[in-house]
Amino acid sequence: MIDDALGDRSLVVVSNREPYVHEYVEGEPTAERPAGGLVTALDGVVAKTGGTWVAWGSGDADFDPAVAPDGEVAVPPGDSGGDPADDDRPGYTLSRLDLPRRLVENYYYGYSNQVLWPICHLEADPVTVDPAFAPAYREANRRFAERAVAADPDVVWFQDYHLALAPQYVREQRPDARLVQFWHVPWPTPEFFEICPQGTELLRGLLGNDAIGFHLERYAANFRDCVARFVPDAAVTESGTIRYDGRTVETYASPIGVDTERVAANARSDGATHYWDRVTDRYDLDPERSIVLGVDRLDYTKGVIERLDALAHLLETNPGLAGEFTYVQKGTRTREGIPAYRRYYDEVRDRIADLNGAYGTPDWTPVVYIEDDVDDRELAGLYRYADAAVVSSRRDGMNLVAKEFVAAQGQPAPNAGLAQADGLDRSTRNRTPGALVLSRFVGAAESLCPAALSVNPYDVAGFAETIRTALTMDETERRERAASMRASVREDDIDAWLATQTDVLTGESRIAADDD
Ligand code: GDG
């Protein structure tokens, strides 16, 4: 338990996104929990420690000064994640930063998402280096750091790529504090990282930490290679630690996972079944047809266009599959302040319209596109009732959708009352768990393949053939592959990840420095 391990040391979590959506009720700010597995898990951790969470006040939403006040909000224990019966948790303080619009545009939509995000995902084309971006990134990181220092922390836990400079800024003021960062996206090779004009500055910023975590050892190794190449006064030791500025910095690999019980419970919930019923009615889905599912933030790294191309190729080369399945794409709009993302939405819509126009028939629409907001239970309904899922990221740090699909599958048949109410025989659906088609370029492939069917999303013919394999796989093979994937998702679940983070945050895992 992190609270026991920390003792009386105070924990401060710093992330770009806040864990709560806030509303004003009679002039008073109230906390309301948004959907999302990771924030829920972190929220539970901070609630146990009674610490502070520093975050930008308006998250990923379009900036709205009216709902983005600056300052502290007390998050009472009752609003926090974890077991509601656990009533001795102290709750925590949410310290919200109201960043000016100009800063948000240049730091968040600019440097974070048009420089760092594409570079970490090995995408050179979308990299846009506007001269205003880097100064804004420095300023925003300073503001996050100042807030963290103001909370008088013993331990600071930074999340992700928006905050590469903040650790150094905190270190300058609190040389005694333990600083740890988890990097949720891949880390590129030195050859690719070199594109970044501020590369060395970013590395020095991150080396302000005592430990830096990645999903995979491969990403950690790339990070160390970048340090060795671009920070001349740092030394990477044979044991994988880094000597820098008179300190030892650890790098570690820790694959993030999902709360398998929570996802499975959501999948079994009435909310999941009712939502699936609504989707079935609204899109006139035939229960005899297989359902293939995609769930993505609409981000070019997720490979949605490549997937639609593969589906078109599949239908072109396998006319016998026409009418045999429906592909359901759930798309969530994201980063709408960036023109490349707006163009991506249009491209996805156009491709879907083209595909349906080319291959659809009066009684069959090959692709159903859902852009509505759905909560976690509704999403679990899509996972549960799909016969196969496709995750085809061009690059992805881990990819939680793949793991959530595995955790939601193989539920008992839904209750017979519902099936009888509208004449659909759902009892025949999902008695066997579904197949997963998974890009080899996502972190999750390391543990889920070969039980998941591995694809190269750039290889349109191979990708199409793999979707065909998933659609035609016999029951025994589906069961065997699903059992293997489920075991792996359970082993690397969110609790395992949090246990590793707890060890690192408290210094338990510290690697003996070999000071060579
Ligand atoms: C970054 C890294 C890494 C999606 N649509 C809806 C919805 N979601 C939820 C999913 C899942 C999450 O969003 C997406 O997580 P991913 O891991 O797939 O991708 P990123 O957002 O890019 O996350 C990634 C992750 O950080 C954690 O370290 O795995 O590689 O890029 O949880 O369920 N949730 C709801 N409605 C939706 O329509 N409720």
UniProtKB/TrEMBL annotation:
SUPFAM superfamilies: UDP-Glycosyltransferase/glycogen phosphorylase. GO terms for biological process: trehalose biosynthetic process. Gene3D superfamilies: Glycogen Phosphorylase B. PANTHER family: BCDNA.GH08860 (PTHR10788:SF106), TREHALOSE-6-PHOSPHATE SYNTHASE (PTHR10788). Residues 69-92 are annotated as: Disordered. InterPro entries: Glyco_trans_20 (IPR001830). The lineage of its organism: Archaea, Methanobacteriati, Methanobacteriota, Stenosarchaea group, Halobacteria. It comes from Halolamina salina. This is Trehalose-6-phosphate synthase. One of its GO terms (molecular function) is hexosyltransferase activity.
